[in-house]
Design goal:
Number of strands: 7
Structural class: alpha/beta
Distance between the termini: 50 Å
Radius of gyration: 20 Å
Strand content: 15-25%
Number of helices: 8
Strand order of the largest sheet: 2-1-3-6-7
CATH architecture of the largest domain: 3-Layer(aba) Sandwich
Shape: elongated
CATH superfamily of the largest domain: Response regulator
Largest sheet: 5 strands, parallel
Length: 181
């Protein structure tokens, strides 16, 4: 039981990505591509049906990559179901469907990206995953209007402060916040 709990805790600390594609070979290739680029920063889970994805989805999923032509449920229907459960979740439609109406519909339903499969589509997926991993910096830049340099500074020193406080706690040093006299 302990090993299962540790695995579940670790998976919520990493960026969780769901790949939904009924073609097991293509899903495996995309999973391998993402894992090779982001290594220990992501967990990539493969689902071969919309139903299995919906059964396993939870709030700690950071990105769902949907093949538009997936089992009996078209990608936009799965997108709609996911957005009904988790409106802020990033969902990417990855498809060979070049129909502009389908793309517009997907974006209206809340797709973060609609990427047509071609030579550069995996590069665009790579960029999206990279943006999700860099989200704390993105929030500082976009929502708080902080400059990129200041954002990097704040994140770096914020993380350093956390590490120092953890080390001090481990060493048994108590810091009250008051300066010595």
């Amino acid at each position: 039981m302990q090993a299962i709990q540790n695995t579940q805790t670790a998976s919520t600390q990493l960026h969780n990505i769901f790949v939904v594609n009924e073609d097991t070979k293509k899903a495996g290739m995309l999973r391998k591509f993402i894992k090779e680029r982001f290594q220990n920063k992501v967990n990539v889970y493969m689902y071969f049906s919309s139903k299995s994805c919906l059964r396993m989805i939870h709030e700690n999923v950071h990105l769902v990559i949907i093949d538009y032509f997936n089992d009996s449920k078209k990608g936009n229907l799965l997108l709609k179901d996911i957005k009904a459960l988790y409106p802020n979740m990033d969902v990417l439609i990855h498809t060979s469907n070049e129909n502009i109406t389908t793309a517009v519909d997907a974006m209206k339903l809340g797709a973060s990206q609609y990427i047509v499969k071609n030579k550069t589509s995996w590069v665009r997926i790579n960029e999206m995953v990279d943006n999700i991993i860099a989200q704390p910096l993105r929030i500082l830049l976009a929502e708080l209007g902080v400059s990129k340099m200041l954002g990097m500074f704040l994140l770096t020193f914020g993380l350093m402060a956390i590490v120092v406080l953890c080390v001090l706690k481990i060493m048994g040093v108590h810091y009250s916040g008051a300066l010595p006299h």
